[in-house]
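Sample 3 of the quickstart, ligand pyridoxal-5'-phosphate:
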Amino acid sequence: CFSYVIIYLHYGVCLIYASSVRTHVNVDPAKLKSLRQRWSVKPSEMSKKTLNPIRAIVDGMKLTPNPEKPMIALSIGDPTVFGNLPTDDTVLQAMKEAIDSHKYNGYAPSVGYQKSREVVADFYSCPEAPLDGKDVILTSGCSQAIELAISVLCNPGDNILVPRPGFSLYKTLAVSMGIQVKHYNLLPEKSWEIDLQHLESLIDDKTACLIVNNPSNPCGSVFSREHLHKILSVASRNCIPILADEIYGDMVFPGCDFQPLAPLSSDVPILSCGGLAKRWLVPGWRMGWILIHDRNDIFGTAIREGLVKLSQRILGPCTVVQGALESILNDTPPEFYQGTISFLKSNSEICYSELSTVPGLNPVMPSGAMYIMVGIEMEHFPDFQNDVEFTERLVTEQSVFCLPATAFEYPNFFRIVVTVPEEMMIEACIRIREFCARHYRPRSQDSHELDQ
Ligand SMILES: Cc1ncc(COP(=O)(O)O)c(C=O)c1O
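Result:
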């Protein structure tokens, strides 16, 4: 009889050869015993260790809005949800042309088309930190860039240093890979600068990488040049490479300067992660990148080859978006970026000035990105145990949903997304004020002082 040998070639081409070898089916009785008697399909250890704290917290909350008030969600870091911040026509046109060209329907190299890599390199290259195509890896969103960067720098048992409060994905990825996470503190009273002493105290011989997120989610803070120099000094003294999450790069308010980290570095090797999601307002297009900055050849070819190998696990980002990149990066008019920034600044100012006069709340004015953090003086709100209960009841009574900052490892704060339409922001602030007035209790000492 014939037996068939099936050979899978790369990307799904499948050849079937028939051979005329006679086969005998001899079943070894010992082997029969090892066959499973019943089904037992269990989730892998990795899947069990993969935890998104935002989901874990939000799914555990009782979010039942007040039926008399329309819901206002100030929790979603997606600038497209309300339709008030469309991307630029140039960006849409670039995408349409890429589709109509019929040139971008196939597989691209796993690190992206060479031409598209060069376009990104030219966009970000500067004399102090020059880049060319080989220094760019295109990824599926900034999230995959972060995943590749952590994967290439760390082994199970190593640790990474991440900001607190900070974007939760770093921990989600690291823990699922068996990498320990050490949180370094950001200081709200210093506009969320890094507590550098604390940062340095966490470093040990297993520290594989320092993650710096600037501008910051959830703080909306932007580090000064001086502060970035100090961060680089810590990394340099301890020989720790940096993963710079700069997805909000250039999204800073007028009067404030965004300084990418790499041009300031004389020796520390840096993987800078970014993408189209925020600045170009198309998070669903899933286009991100890693910029490899290694002027002193510390990463060398080994880290570059490691990144290429890891990128081959899943073939890079959508090829149509890669085809549109040149026009998106080079032709989007400056007025588009300015328009987004002035909207974000104006909404941040409304939110900040409204909430800073609410007894019991302490908002911290941001300088960029899309967020504002608000401190809660929990001792004045005895009705609630913590920020999670506070924000849960804010939904029940006022139909306003803000993310409790416990989701960013920072209790007693909540985060507001400032991309919502202005009238919604104003209405939300009015409702938050009403909610706080209802639940605010002066401490007995305060009320005693008031009596005098
Ligand atoms: C700080 C930070 N880094 C990375 C990302 C992920 O970006 P992307 O949607 O391109 O994967 C986000 C998304 O919210 C973010 O806030």
